[in-house]
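so i finally got all the pieces together for this one. its two components total, 546 residues if u count the protein bits. some of the lines might not be protein, just check the labels. i wanna see the whole assembly predicted at once instead of chain by chain like last time, that was a mess tbh
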Amino acid sequence: MDELLEILEKDGRASVEDIAKMLKKKPQAIRQAIRRYEKEGIILKYKAVINKELIKEKDVEVRALIEVNVTPQKDVGFDRIAERIYSFPEVVSCYLVSGTYDLLLIVEGRDLHTVSSFVAEKLAPLENVKGTTTHFLLKKYKEDGVVLKHKEENKRIAISY
Amino acid sequence: MMISKKVQNMQPSGIRTFFDLVLGMKDVISLGVGEPDFVTPWQIREAGIYSLEEGFTSYTSNKGLYRLRLAISRHLHNRYNLDYSPEDEILITVGVSEATDLVLRAIINKGDKILIPIPGYVSYGPLTELAGGVPVYIDTSKENFKLTPSTLEKHIDKNTKALILNYPNNPTGISYTKAELKQINKVILKYKLLCITDEVYGDLTYDFEHTPFATLPKAKERTVYLNGFSKSYAMTGWRVGFACGPKDVIAAMTKIHQYTIMCVSITSQMAACEALHAGRSAVEYMKREYRRRKEFIMEGLEHLGLKCIKPQGAFYVFASIKDTMMGSLEFSRELLERQKVAVVPGTAFGYNGEGYIRISYAASFENLKEGLCRMEEFLKTIRRG
């Protein structure tokens, strides 16, 4: 992978000027490369990683992993039914997986009730859905490579040979 | 006093006081650290924990775990086509520090001279003296901190026993290409010297491939190759290094090692096995990260108008502060007190480090950036006079 992507994947807010210094290139070249990645859809989006566990407000959503068994369709396989499912805004992630079920969803809702009714009223009744198993998430420890806790203090001594 | 003359005469150091000053201060941006700022990769730490759970809590063979020696032997073969027998040509030591002490004690007869290019790592001279040898310091500052064959040759006489060559170098970041090493090797062979190489930063070479000295023509029987896990794998606190060399030298070193150390901690040795087994991608990742930081800080220092020789390895920049008209120690102390940035005065690494400071870029980008800003402020105030 291009080092530019490695840098941005770790810190989406790294400035063009800083990246240019790190990679010993002209800022203009970095700017162009980023624009190209964006255009090609390699860079899709920049966003903050938020530790929602720490948000004190009441309306923090709950998440559930949902295993879905579906019937694939002629010619399009799983793609069409997947699209029907992932188009619901409640579906945060959707993967086709190997193993005992087909689609793995991450669904987000205001509370347990909202997620349950989404499964019962929207997901399960779909024609090609044969069955679902819902796992509510109890605690998040790590997400997309980020450990969800405050960085510990540096344990190194401040000066050494 | 009951303290021996030898130890009493060991270099007293204004640097120590400065170090204590840094350690006593809070919220310092530290660019003064001689170790990676990464934590040991998890799979390596996990292997150490697992070994404890499994009850590996005993001594190991004096030479070190056979598994580890075998893994090192294979690694050197695969990476450099360098062959050392795990049976009797490799010794596991408590870091390169112990290995340096062992090899000097193993080879020095009273009065033997050891050549030490400076600025250089702090332990070579004192360890030579403790072993009864005479350190002969070679000033590299006039030649871009690089030891040249002719300068080397000028320092050799009939009592010269060995050269200690550390590359990539702490504190200058200077390293040597294969062609340059070949020229040095010619001198070593001509005068039948021993070359002790401290290659602990070998994995962190940026502009060209690192060449172990022992791979040069006819060099192997005259080289003691020292390396360790501290810098490449971010394992400084585990204290694992190794020495590879001719059988008789390794046997002599093992004799001393068995009485003073017995063996390296088994937990650390088990973790080191895992480092060689699964740690390469982490090494490559950290190297890319260091390279980016190097470019970043070099650009920053240029902007500040501090001259420095372009580092080729390790994670240090040796920057000249001569135009500030301040001494290294004074500059470092003022920078610490006024802006809370810690660097190491060049004089820590030899008298000719005067006029320089060692900046370590084993620090996060945020800290490098903030450190540069504060240095800029500092330079503004002192340049204004």
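The first strand of chain A starts at residue 62 and ends at 70.
The first helix of chain A runs from residue 3 to 10.
anyway lmk what u think
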